[in-house]
Amino acid sequence: MATAAAPPAAAPSSARRLKRPDVCTPVEANDRGTRVRSAPVSADLFSVDGKVALVTGGSRGIGLMIARGLVAAGAQVVISSRKAEVCDAAAREIGAVSVPADLSGREGVEQLAAAVAERFDRVDLLVNNAGASWGAPLEDFPDSGWQKVMSTNVHGVFLLTVALLPQLRAGGDASVVNIGSIDGIRAPLLENYPYSASKAAVHMLTKHLAKRLAGERIRVNAIAPGPFESQMTKSFLGTEEARAAVGAQVPLGRIGTPEDVLGTTLFLASRAGAFLTGTVIPLDGGITGCGASL
């Protein structure tokens, strides 16, 4: 005959509920299985307050989104772009320092690096966002288009990162964030051949620089944005109807916002991202991860 199961033993009278902490304090198990608390998570985990940041291509589009957010978060921000009047106006608007420069060649890169070094003895965050695009039919694509895009998007990123190494090293724990593109991860529909090739190159350059500089406490990561409203995407995101149509094809149902790219940048620039280097983060609403056909 089957016997009834014994009722569960009552909890010892000394047992008590863990009090809910006032701050986020992760609970871990030690080697005996006893639950112990680790150090509290600091409220300034994502802080960039007081950090010195340089954002290239910072006068419009994604660069301006990032620069504006960094200023609001307490960083000292330098923005650079090719057109002086546009750069100066954007800097005044957001409370940043303007240093116009053409980053498609060594001379402009060195001028920018020297100007930053005159103002600050360190750089905690370098956002390599300046970029160019060019579209033309396959059989008519000009050499000048390839030269302009590759020199700005790839060679310029390399030159500026190297030129600022003394300031990045002086920071003691610096972050370089390269702005790539999902066009460098999957083949785009547009005939922008050097752009997609250049962004794939930026992603690999990110990994290569990360490996070389990890021992110097300089982290190098990349963000690969999907559809964000900018001057570069004006041809297909220039109207509310177009943005809604493109957003409907994104798995998360919308295009990117300033908060999206700023949040990812703050993560990579702060203590929150201190254990990450050599990574390319697709910021695309699921286009690449979910295999969307956009």
Give an account of the 3D structure.
The chain is of the alpha/beta class. The protein has a single domain, classed as Rossmann fold, CATH 3.40.50.720. The strands form two sheets. The chain has a seven-stranded parallel beta sheet with strand order 5-4-3-6-7-8-9, with helices on both faces. A hairpin with a 5-residue loop joins strand 1 and strand 2. Helix 3 runs parallel beside helix 4 and helix 4 packs parallel to helix 6. It is globular, with a radius of gyration of 24 Å.
Summarize the amount of helix as a percent range.
Answer: 25-40%
The total number of structural domains is 1
CATH architectural category: 3-Layer(aba) Sandwich
CATH class: Alpha Beta
Give the N-to-C terminal Cα separation: 66 Å
Low-confidence stretches: 1-6, 8-25
Strand order of the largest sheet: 5-4-3-6-7-8-9
The CATH homologous superfamily is called NAD(P)-binding Rossmann-like Domain
The secondary-structure class comes to: alpha/beta
Overall mean pLDDT score? Answer: 88
The CATH topology: Rossmann fold
Oligomer: single chain
Give me the Rg, rounded.
24 Å
**How many strands, what sense, and barrel or not for the largest sheet?**
7 strands, parallel
